[in-house]
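step: validate -> pass
step: tokenize input -> pass
step: predict -> running
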Amino acid sequence: MALNDKIEELRDELVSQRGFLWSKKNKDSITKCLSLIDEIKMALPSALQEAGYIISQKQKILSSAQDAANKIVNDANLKAKDLIKEEKITKQAEAEAEALIADANKKCNQLYSSTKENIDRMLKSVEDYFASNLRVVKNNREELAGGTLNKKKQD
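step: predict -> pass
step: emit ->
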């Protein structure tokens, strides 16, 4: 079940409760819970959209890094072919081509690693955001459950 469906189910459950939960004493608490649920629902789409954007950017950055690496490798290969034509510097050309290819692979790996770390930090931020909101919802449920238990003990 989708997260929005679960939130809507929680909201419906709160609204459908009658009796002691909606007593004058608990009305403010229930109203606050409903308000918090509405705020969570409004915040979720933007957070989910941000997570989708981060993931789409990951692919673009990795693709761009791969294109840059391919261009460097192609340039190195072309340069190596030109140098091979000249007999006197054949060995030098091969060494330069290998160095360029190794440098391109190193740069590609570095770019990939830094991109992966940046995306991980962004996803961690989104994860922390959801965890924080989940704690708020759990605390509200526990407070709500605590209010229910106290009311039953008094009766």
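step: describe -> Residues 28-146 form one domain.
step: cleanup -> pass
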